[in-house]
Design brief:
The complex is a heterodimer of chains A (93) and B (156). With 93 residues, chain A is mainly α. Chain A contains 5 helices and no strands. Chain B has one domain (3-146): Thiol Ester Dehydrase, Chain A (Roll). In chain B, strand 1 (11-16) and strand 2 form a beta hairpin. Classes of the chains: A mainly alpha (93), B alpha+beta (156).
């Protein structure tokens, strides 16, 4: 698993009641890990700070609410980590 | 300061960028109905109102930065320490420094001093939402005018 996945999983385990070993690449943050919106805000804050990025949660939420994408697109762990890796890469460009 | 009406900030002293930061004055009244209950014979400003004072400073700082496009609502109060009591007629110095402004949220470090002595400090989380009513937007803008929050050039 990627370095980003390890960091994100550790942040989630630290910011919530979810045991680290329950957090898998296929885990859906809301449906499987049952992270609520306020805990997710803390998690995004920690990820933003760790990697020096700004996860576009508002834009993602709008896409989901408009029916343009499913929640799996951004809120399954492996997909979320790919998005974070892209944000880190685009920061370096 | 009119504690009963949640008008806790009296005037903005400074607001600016790099880092996004605001300082303000909050003058505690000599008399208030709140002091009648908190506490009889020993009036002090309630801790929840000190937290609210810091939250209002953070809110005005973020509103200044986003030109009143979205309303910051308090969603997280962390690492709060209420270190000293605040008696009536105190003149408080309120500081907010935005730690991180993310997508739809912000976290800030806030504090209050009284005559140089640290009264309280906290990390506050705010979530941005659309203004739920035009009345609220008008009210918030009127409050910003009352406390001399300067206008910021539009971001667009």
């Amino acid at each position: 698993m990627s370095e980003v996945f390890e960091v994100v999983a550790t942040i989630i385990a630290t910011s919530s009641e979810v045991p680290r070993d329950k957090i898998l690449p296929e885990s859906h943050i809301v449906d499987d890990l049952e992270i609520d919106s306020l805990d997710f805000l803390d998690i995004v804050f920690a990820i933003d700070k760790k990697f020096g990025i700004k996860i576009p949660i508002e834009a993602w939420t709008e896409e989901v609410n408009n029916g343009d994408v499913t929640t799996e697109r951004y809120f399954v762990m492996k997909n979320l980590c790919v998005e974070i890796e892209d944000l880190i890469a685009s920061k370096k460009d | 300061m009119k504690m009963e009406y949640f008008q806790l900030i009296d005037r903005i002293e400074t607001v600016g960028l790099d880092p996004l930061r605001l300082t303000a004055k909050a003058d505690v009244p000599a008399e208030s109905t709140i002091f009648e209950g908190h506490f009889p014979g020993y009036p002090i400003m309630p801790g929840v109102l000190l937290i609210e004072t810091m939250a209002q400073a953070a809110g005005f700082c973020l509103l200044w930065n986003n030109c009143f496009k979205k309303m910051p609502f308090l969603v997280a109060v962390k690492s709060v320490k209420l270190r000293n009591f605040v008696p009536p007629s105190s003149s408080l110095d309120v500081l907010c420094e935005v730690e991180h402004e993310g997508s739809g949220y912000a976290y800030s470090r806030t504090s209050i001093h009284n005559e140089g002595k640290l009264i309280c400090d906290a990390q506050l989380g705010m979530k941005f939402l659309e203004f739920p009513s035009p009345e609220l937007l008008d009210h918030i803008k009127a409050q910003a005018h009352r406390i001399d929050l300067p206008e910021r050039a539009s971001l667009e």
